[in-house]
Specification:
The chain has about 325 residues and is α+β, with helices and mostly antiparallel strands. The chain has a domain at about 1-10 and about 75-220: 2,3-Dihydroxybiphenyl 1,2-Dioxygenase, domain 1 (Roll), CATH 3.10.180.10. About 15% of the residues lie in helices and about 35% in strands. The chain contains 5 helices and 16 strands. An 8-stranded mixed sheet has the order 2-3-4-1-13-16-15-14. It is globular. The structure holds fe (ii) ion. Fe (ii) ion binds next to strand 1 and strand 13.
Length: about 325
């Protein structure tokens, strides 16, 4: 498989708690743009699918969430699962973020790993986040929102940290299955780079042999999956065929996610990966740029259930704030 088929992150998806709590955290604390409000297309229960990113929700700037609290579905964090959402900010902006967290009463700690300074904090549902200060230039267009000026804005995904009881099989999946390069190791954490182009490429794999495994199903407080950007249907098929040929035969069929197309594969560490490519229209498929995320969008096959779904979902106040 050519390493150029894989282009870092497309999006990262989490099962969170309440919808309003999630909106407030991503839009009002982290200053991301709400670029789409729709529903999860899988399963019987009505659950929001909320998308946050930069102005257009470009690949690698996207965080997406399923607020499961209203159905009482709880997850349990732990090993053999994705662990920490890593987001890129300019290195010189970490002080801005520390002061902002102080002002907003967000608990955080700081640290340094693989030569980058970081702020560690949590989503209100408990999922670990890290702002990673990058000195390298980042051409992703920043969104200025929630009181965060563009110069300090989160640029998008830096990558993901995955916890494994035994990382060995996962190293093979990353390097031989997805063509990642091992860049470094520090303590019990190994650093891999996923693809030559794109962003959100930094996958960190931490050995946690004494930590109980996490849950995999949808459930508040857990990362659900990491979507890799494979750019187009041909490259998606080639990566899928390559993984099948290695014996990872549980790569799913291609699913229409309306704004992009997805195949899913469970990795040996337990973390769920997705191979995604965007439709050319992206999130402009059903809303104009100025109005992205402002109204509830449904695919045509669910449009006849609009009122029923709205009545069953928590209302989200997206007013200025
Ligand atoms: Fe996804």
């Amino acid at each position: 498989m050519g390493i150029d088929l894989v282009r870092g992150a497309h999006h990262l998806t989490l099962s969170v708690g309440g919808a309003q709590e999630d909106y407030d955290f991503h839009a009002r604390v982290l200053g991301l743009r709400s670029v789409k409000k729709t529903v999860l297309f899988d399963g019987e229960l009505p659950v929001y699918h909320l998308y946050y990113g930069n102005g257009l929700g470009d690949a690698s700037t996207l965080l997406t969430t399923f607020p499961y609290r209203q159905h009482g579905w709880k997850g349990r964090p732990g090993s053999n699962q994705a662990k920490t959402i890593k987001l890129t900010v300019p290195a010189d902006s970490l002080n801005f973020w520390a002061e902002r967290f102080d002002t907003l009463g967000i608990e955080y700690s700081d640290g340094r790993l693989f030569g980058t300074d970081r702020l560690f904090f949590r989503h209100p549902c408990g999922i670990e986040y890290a702002l990673v200060g990058e000195r390298e230039p980042d051409e992703r267009a920043p969104w200025s929102g929630g009181g965060v000026p563009a110069e300090h804005a989160i640029r998008g995904a830096h990558g993901l940290t995955i916890s494994a009881i035994d990382p060995r099989e996962m190293v093979e999946f990353l390097t031989e299955g997805l063509g990642a390069k091992k860049l470094d190791s520090e303590g019990t954490t190994e650093l891999f780079e996923l693809g030559n182009t794109g962003h959100g490429k930094q996958i960190e794999l931490v050995a946690e042999p004494d930590v109980m495994p996490a849950t995999w199903r949808f459930g508040e407080g857990t990362v659900h999956h990491f979507a890799i950007d494979v750019n187009n249907p041909e490259d998606q098929q080639e990566v899928k065929d390559w993984l099948n040929g290695m014996g990872y035969t549980d790569v799913s069929e291609r699913k229409d996610r309306r704004y992009f197309y997805s195949c899913y594969v469970r990795s040996p560490s337990g973390a769920l990966f997705e191979l995604a490519y965007s439709r050319p229209e992206g999130f402009l498929l059903d809303e104009v740029e100025d109005e992205l995320g402002s109204s509830f969008q449904l695919p045509p096959h669910l449009e006849n259930r609009r009122q029923e779904l709205i009545s069953q979902l928590e209302a989200i106040d997206t007013g200025a704030g």
